[in-house]
Amino acid sequence: MARRWRESDRARIEHRRLWVERLFVRGLTLREIEAQLVKPEPKGPNILNPATGQGYDLSTISRDVTVIKERWKEEAAADVAEVKANQLAELREARRKAWSDSNVAEVRRNLSLETDLTGTKAPKAVDVTSKGEKLDPNVIVVRDYLAAQEAQETAENVDGE
What we know:
single chain, flat, 68% helix, mainly alpha
């Protein structure tokens, strides 16, 4: 059964996590955070476990760090999505303005920027076999057939020895 937290418990947990986060981003290890949390003010926050009157154990601090990292990931994803949405809205407004000014070059530029931002630009085809020369599909088929034949003959020669 899930534990039901009182509002005062939640506030105490969030206060502890705030301090854990502050110390963690300064590069302190979990053990250093554990020691720092129990230091009396003004050198530390003097955060004690109310159930024991002692400092919080490493497993509690480790869980706090896990929760903190998950929050950072969620915030980062939300921030990126929000920035992209704002940029997209600005590009579309600039494109509307370009259309109203009959500025086709600016419309094209904004469309290009929008497809870059949304990831909808079609990838460029890359030819890695012909060195830029136009190849007849029949030549490719014959070339592949000959390469397969050569490989088969080599394998038969190795087996026959």
